[in-house]
């Protein structure tokens, strides 16, 4: 806790606040916000109405806190400082500098890896399901299967999702398009003694048909499907069109 950084003076106590916060267990998802960003009041617009003891909390985060107060008051300000840092963090990580810092953490898989077997341990990104604080905890997003997961550790599961926002995981892929993973078509097929389970097999056939239909539509619009695996060939489309024409035509008998 904070005691690790407490020395004989209050100035030493406050000078390590951000270092303490980032290095604390459970805060591994956060990156360090630049001091210049914190000192620019434009970046903090509107937060004074959302954080209790806003000015004291900001002073603590920016290492200029010098209020002589009792332990209870200090604890309240400390809680507000953590909340303030989280709200500013959501804004900071969509800036150029913030995206760069989060990119490094993403490359090192510091947010975890996708638990889905067919994603082959693809790294995850934190996201919030709501931009309003105290609504939902942080979730993890996989760019390969495009699904969300709960954090593996309980200490991460209590982090407010608003501290990362609903847009960050999409913005980072727009800024760094090379990071966009190819979508895998690998699927688990349930079997009993080597035979496909009928209900599951029927569902998979339906899903595959829908996916192929979507890929054909995208191809006609000259759009990249983003899927790995075999591409839908023009010949297959022509054969399907011919089959549909035969089914919709007459029965081949000549009228008398």
TrEMBL record:
GO molecular function, one term: kinase activity
Keywords assigned by UniProt, alphabetized: Kinase, Transferase
Annotated Gene3D superfamilies: 2.20.25.20, protein kinase ck2 holoenzyme, chain C, domain 1 (1.10.1820.10)
InterPro entries referenced in this protein's UniProt entry, alphabetically: Casein_kin_II_reg-sub_N, Casein_kinase_II_beta-like, Casein_kinase_II_reg-sub
Acidic residues: compositionally biased ranges: 230-249
Cleaved signal peptide residues: none
UniProt record, GO biological process: regulation of transcription by RNA polymerase III
A GO CC annotation given for this chain: protein kinase CK2 complex
Disordered as annotated region, ranges: 225-256
Keyword Transferase annotated: yes
UniProt keyword annotation of Kinase present: yes
Family from the record: Belongs to the casein kinase 2 subunit beta family.
Family annotation (PANTHER family): CASEIN KINASE II SUBUNIT BETA
Entry function: Regulatory subunit of casein kinase II/CK2. As part of the kinase complex regulates the basal catalytic activity of the alpha subunit a constitutively active serine/threonine-protein kinase that phosphorylates a large number of substrates containing acidic residues C-terminal to the phosphorylated serine or threonine.
UniProt subunit comment: Tetramer of two alpha and two beta subunits.
Protein name: Casein kinase II subunit beta
